[in-house]
TrEMBL record:
Protein name: Mitochondrial carrier
Annotated membrane topology: Multi-pass membrane protein
InterPro entries, sorted: MCP_dom_sf (IPR023395), MCP_transmembrane (IPR018108), SLC25A3/Pic2/Mir1-like (IPR044677)
Protein's GO biological process: copper ion transmembrane transport; mitochondrial phosphate ion transmembrane transport
Function description: Transport of phosphate groups from the cytosol to the mitochondrial matrix.
Native source organism of the sequence: Ophiobolus disseminans
UniProt keyword annotation of Ribosomal protein present: no
Residue windows of the Solcar repeats: 84-168, 181-266, 282-366
Keywords: Membrane, Mitochondrion, Mitochondrion inner membrane, Repeat, Transmembrane, Transmembrane helix, Transport
Top-rank taxon, per record: Eukaryota
Main location: mitochondrion
Signal peptide coordinates: none
GO molecular function: phosphate transmembrane transporter activity
Classification via Gene3D superfamilies: Mitochondrial carrier domain (1.50.40.10)
Length: 383
């Protein structure tokens, strides 16, 4: 239909004072020294790795979808805010908190010891090196048992309870008032859930802190630690840190859930389109970013109480009241002492919270449920 370049060159050759050169025609023949591109689709290690990663990713997604459909078929349809829904959220919370807290046990170990004695280690790597040389790799994970059991119990009650109480308080406010009071609903729902969750966490937290702050650890495992405390101090010894634990965890969880919901909502408001326009991977990515940002705020708000919990569990005298113990410890360490170990805790809690929300929302997707947050009131208008 259109003239070729050689035809145009011949037609207008006389219009230019410069000699015209016709393009060389490429030969399709190959010499024995010429690499054949059809035999080598990937021309670099990077491209080859990229292709393999893409194939692995596609295979992983396919397996995820297959397992997800199988789980959903087995569980049956899960209606929002039904008992089955709250059970699924509880299980998701167990996975999110139990696994992540156990994974960061080495960080938690150093944090607790530095809170009790700020001069014990100069930094994390020095601490891990000293502990590793003295006790081996197992010593670096001191306290992982009570950490896993305690935070699995707490995570299930916290996430499942939050979904329940959020719906409960939203119904009390009424649909027409939800957008106006949603921040208060998030705060009230998370506080109520954490109040109950800490009752399940407290005995395990007492064992964990004592194992991590005594050298050598006072117990060999979770049940051994519980039995040792009960034998020496009675059942109440497991709960002597409950009030400070509430003081640490309730503000922490209120900030964790309310700020996460707010940040995720802001992200989806900023992005074009609505939440439903984005893939599952993108939604869980938003969950991680929102969770990490919320975790930084959580760490700052709850850190003084976290230091006090560690001090009470390791330094409280027999028969000493909570108020007297708090006053004595504060007199010893001062206001500045309440912030020992904050940088480490910011890294730990930020990463922890981001991973928890990502795992929790991944599990909700796996069970065919919507991810948490990010449904702004004008969502329909954006469509």
């Amino acid at each position: 239909m259109f003239p070729t370049l050689s035809t145009l060159s011949q037609a207008f050759a006389g219009c230019s004072p410069l000699p015209q050169r016709l393009p060389d025609t490429q030969s399709n023949t190959f010499s024995k020294w010429t690499a054949r591109q059809d035999l080598y689709p990937a021309w670099s290690v990077t491209e080859d790795a990229k292709n393999k990663a893409t194939k692995l990713g596609d295979a992983a997604v396919a397996e995820f979808e297959k397992a997800s459909h199988k789980a959903q078929d087995k569980a049956g349809h899960i209606e929002l805010y039904s008992p089955k829904y709250y059970a699924a959220c509880t299980f998701g919370g167990i996975m999110a908190c139990g696994l992540t807290h156990t994974a960061v046990t080495p960080l938690d170990l150093v944090k607790c010891r530095r809170q009790v004695d700020s001069k014990m280690y100069k930094g994390n790597f020095e601490a891990w090196g000293k502990i590793g040389r003295a006790e081996g790799v197992r010593g670096v994970f001191t306290g992982w048992g009570p950490t896993f059991w305690g935070y699995s119990v707490q995570g299930g009650l916290k996430y499942g309870g939050y979904e329940f109480f959020k719906k409960f308080y939203a119904d009390l406010a009424g649909e027409e008032n939800f957008d106006k009071y949603k921040t208060f609903i998030f705060l009230a729902g998370s506080a109520s859930a954490e109040f109950i969750a800490d009752i399940g966490l407290c005995p395990f937290e007492a064992v964990k802190v004592r194992m991590q702050t005594t050298i050598p650890p006072f117990a060999t495992g979770t049940m051994n630690g519980i039995n040792t405390i009960v034998a020496k101090e009675g059942f109440g010894g497991l709960y002597k840190g409950l009030y400070p634990l509430w003081g640490r965890q309730i503000p922490y969880t209120m900030m964790k859930f309310a700020s996460f919901e707010t940040i995720v909502g802001m992200i989806y408001n900023y992005l074009p389109g609505s939440k439903s326009d984005y893939s599952k991977a993108a939604q869980t990515g938003v969950s991680f970013v929102g969770g990490y940002a919320a975790g930084i705020l959580c760490a700052i708000v709850s850190h003084p109480a976290d230091v006090m919990v560690s001090k009470l569990n390791s330094q409280r005298k027999a028969g000493e009241g909570s108020g007297a113990a708090v006053g004595r410890i504060y007199k010893d360490i001062g206001f500045g002492g309440l912030w020992n170990g904050l940088p480490v805790r910011i890294v730990m809690i930020g990463t922890l919270t981001g991973l928890q929300w990502m795992i929790y929302d991944y599990f909700k997707i796996f069970m065919g449920l919507p991810t948490t947050g990010g449904a702004p009131p004008d969502d329909k208008a954006k469509k």
